[in-house]
Amino acid sequence: MTSSQRSRLAASWATALALALTLVSGPALAADPKDATLSREDQACLECHAKPGLRKTLANGETLPLYIAPQPFAESRHAREGCEGCHSQIDTATHGKPGNEQKLASKRSHAVESMETCRDCHQKTMKKYDDSVHWALVKTGSAKAPLCADCHNPHATKSTKEANAADDALCRQCHEKVTQAFTASVHGTDGENLECKDCHRTHDVKAATVGDHLRGQCLSCHKETAATHASWLPNAGRHLEAVSCAACHAPNATRRVDLRIHEARGEKAAEKVGVPQFVQFTSSASGKGGLDGRALWSLLQDLSRGNGDDSRTFVRGRLEVQTGVEAHSLAAKGKALKDCATCHRKGAAAFQSVTVSMIGADGRPLRQGASQGILNSVESIGSVAGFYAIGGTRIKLLDALLVMALAGGVLLPGAHLAMKVISARRRKAADQRTSDSD
Questions:
Q1: What is the pTM of this model?
Q2: Which residue ranges does the record annotate as region Disordered (predicted)?
Q3: Can you give the residue ranges of every domain in the chain?
């Protein structure tokens, strides 16, 4: 409880006590021994709020239930704080009196405002939530993004562990198709009873394609992955870095190459966040076939100039599936793609769909279609460094350099050996002539 809450509690103590005493002669809830853990002040509040029919009509016509079940509240985590701990703004002398009703616009707005009360005690948790895609959506006006009260009943939560066990039904309100795909996947049928939060966490939820935290979640259970992949997959480490798990483990998915814009300052690089500049540029520069290599180069130069002299903007390529439904349609391990030719061949399907993306203000990626040729252009070589699949992208200059390197690797040693033989023969002939002249 904060110092301001404690001061308000002290100020209202006398009033609350007087109110409680006036209720002793009535059917006070304290008579029930199960509720004896509640303070007299809380029992006074429950004299009204324990009535199941108590409700309030809001400005938008919604009805807000005001009923609090005494026993669950008495056993809850918040009982020790008491009603005053969260409702310190209420004046018990006038509360409930005609003309003193609290004006509430809607259930949603009330739930959003109430989160500031949660912040008083749960600062670390709220800091995580503030950095989540859900809070970013709330700030943009989303009516569905989950709030504290959507997962936690403050009048019945018994423990932090219980409170974190958010029902997946809440997730289904926005992610119904994804949930259906997950239920039919290997994770939904293997008996492990995984929940959304097991992979996506609870409070600091990120958009699925942001960062590499989901790969980390996969590896947290599949700890042997690096070793098992290295036993058969060439350059396994690079594949695990540049290819999403679902790209191979959802064999029926449609794949694409996404070039995510990053910002580097010194030794650190992070996904760049921004909206207007990216949207304006890509809208004006995108032709019928999407951004080309020259447009990408210009965009990166423009973004770098806006960052200052100590930073640079670049892209990192990643092979991924195109939808969240596909990302959750994971098959059994034996059905995963293992044929290198799926990607490493001319005209590979995965390289025919290319996007350039940046994190938007709501925490989700903004995507702009790009021409397939963006991976082949000279202008893109510096931008997509580290993401080159022989036979898949076919950047001609890189092919030429590769041929030159291979030729050099063969011809130079051969030429050196030939010169050595010729030189030896010449020396021998010269020595012979010298001997004959003597």
A1: 0.71
A2: 90-109
A3: 3-163, 206-393
